[in-house]
Inverse folding.
C-alpha cells in the first residue's frame, strides 16, 4: 500500500513505557488522544534522538505523570501498527519500575489514572498485550 506520508511517519518510532509499582499496585493511565484514545496503558512515549531508553523513560514518566521511578529491567516489547497512517508505527520497549517519589499529575495526553492490582480488572479497555507486560514486570519487581 502506497500512502503519501510526511517523512516523520514513513518509519517506525522507538518508544518506551513503564509498569510502575507502588505498594503492590501498578499505575495505569488512560490515553486522551490517538493512538490509543480511551484505552488504559502505561505511561511512556517516544525516545528522542541522542537519548538513551532509560533517559527517555525517566523524562516521559516525569512529563506524563510527574513521578520519579527506579528502572528495574526490561519487561517486554510490543509493536503498534497504525490503524490510520497518521497514527504512526511504534516499537514500544516496556520496563518494570518502582515508584520513588511524587504523586500522579497528568499532562494533556492522559485523562485519568488508577493504581490497580496487577491482575487487571476485566472491565478496563486495555492496550494490546498490557497484561503480559505487567505480569513480567511484576516478577522483575518482586511483587
Amino acid at each position: 500500500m502506497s500512502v503519501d506520508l510526511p517523512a516523520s511517519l514513513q518509519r517506525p518510532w522507538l518508544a518506551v513505557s513503564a509498569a510502575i509499582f507502588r505498594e503492590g499496585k501498578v499505575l495505569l493511565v488512560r490515553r486522551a488522544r490517538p493512538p490509543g484514545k480511551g484505552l488504559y496503558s502505561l505511561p511512556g512515549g517516544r525516545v528522542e534522538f541522542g537519548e538513551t531508553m532509560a533517559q527517555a523513560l525517566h523524562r516521559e514518566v516525569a512529563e506524563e505523570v510527574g513521578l520519579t521511578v527506579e528502572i528495574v529491567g526490561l519487561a517486554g516489547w510490543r509493536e503498534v501498527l497504525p490503524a490510520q497512517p497518521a497514527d504512526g508505527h511504534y516499537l514500544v520497549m516496556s520496563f518494570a519500575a518502582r515508584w520513588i517519589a511524587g504523586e500522579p499529575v497528568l499532562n494533556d495526553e492522559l485523562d485519568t489514572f488508577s493504581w490497580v492490582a496487577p491482575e487487571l480488572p476485566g472491565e478496563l479497555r486495555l492496550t494490546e498485550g498490557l497484561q503480559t507486560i505487567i505480569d513480567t514486570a511484576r516478577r522483575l519487581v518482586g511483587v
